[in-house]
Write a structure and sequence with these properties.
Order of helices and strands: HHEEEEEEEEEEE
Mean pLDDT: 82
Number of helices: 2
Shape: flat
Distance between the termini: 26 Å
Radius of gyration: 23 Å
Length: 205
Amino acid sequence: MAITETGHPPKETEMLIKRIVMFIIGRPKEAAIILLALLLTLVYWRLDHETRRAQELTAKIEGLPPDTKQTVTVYRDRVVTKLRDGPTKIEYRDRYLPPEGHIEVVTKIDHPEKPPVVAIKDWGFTRRLGGGLVYSGTLLPLVDLKLAYWRRYSLTAGLTPHFGGIGISRHIDDLTPFLNLELQATLGLDWSGRPRIGMGIRSNF
């Protein structure tokens, strides 16, 4: 994807906009169905988001049974920990768990009276194959390898039919109902050595 010397979008972008407008005008029924599907997706995401928030608030309100020192609950991409700190005080922790991460519950042998330590691995190196679609003058399939992650952000190395390069991606599970969908920006060189940039979406396989 490039910008012309005059600062205006390239002709490919203008053509894409014209095609979208012509599609809406020429096929209003299909355009209405697509719009309805997008609206339903948005409504589902809002409902799912509110349901998850209600579950988390319920976990806060319920507290802990008198004979319980600690509980750890995973709500999809959230790890909720409740820890008793004194006779009446309960500490509440809520952390994000990326799809690449995991949880470790560690109990120390020399401190059996203490509650287990809950370690959330939300950053590190990985080797996860993935793929998606990017737009770089035209829509291109993408195959990539995720190399590292930090919470919702990741570093990838990918290839398309026209160029290869390094990518930065972000999980959008806080914006959509899809837990394994990411926005992707890829910067690299085409097979002639010219710089290219692609924008699109990806997912882990």
